[in-house]
Amino acid sequence: MIDYVFGLSVRVMLTDKDGKILILKRSTDSKTNPGKWEIPGGKVDQGESFDHALTREVFEETQLKISLDHVVGVCEQNLHVIRAVHIIMSGEIIGGNLSLSSEHEGYAWVFFENLAEYELADWLHDFVTNQSTSETETKGNENKNVADSVKPWLKTIQTSMDKIIKR
Q: Where are the beta strands (DSSP E) in the chain?
């Protein structure tokens, strides 16, 4: 069995006034997911808070200043020896002009439901697919318990949090 080292990454879904999400196209010489689309963000450095890491990464990648709202999801990415956990937050642009770093070679504003039309980074593809599956499962049953529609891996997080706060 392979033991993984876990790495933490934070991402943000930045929306414009029309409700479109900013996605960035990775450079073709990138080590992971070259030429594929992702949402802004990146690694959390040791000792760095989530919000600081995310605002720093977004500024480095786009020159945009942002404010963060709340967590909208979690997904993971399995690399050779690293399992990256991506915490996805929502946020808004509060300043700056969009200018990409060399890490990315393009950007687009798209509606969430149209993300599947792009060649997405593997972790983002999984996240979008899981969101679409969750929405399909709950359609037609408005009174369904939210916990019943949450993916099993989120239930384990809830169980852990319940133990921590001793509910």
A: 5-14, 21-26, 37-38, 41-43, 65-78, 82-95, 104-110
